[in-house]
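Rather than argue in generalities, we have chosen a single entry, letters for residues, whole numbers for local backbone shapes, without further comment.
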Amino acid sequence: MAGILNRIKQFARSPQGRRAIAEARRAAADPRKRAQAQRLLGKLRGRR
């Protein structure tokens, strides 16, 4: 499990990881994208 966390940390520090994080932050700030994500999470939770 620690190996997975280290890989995630390493990715987050890389240029690609920084770009992905910035893109996710922009998407989270957009109300339409936020609503879309909420609907998706609702569907996923409903399956259980």
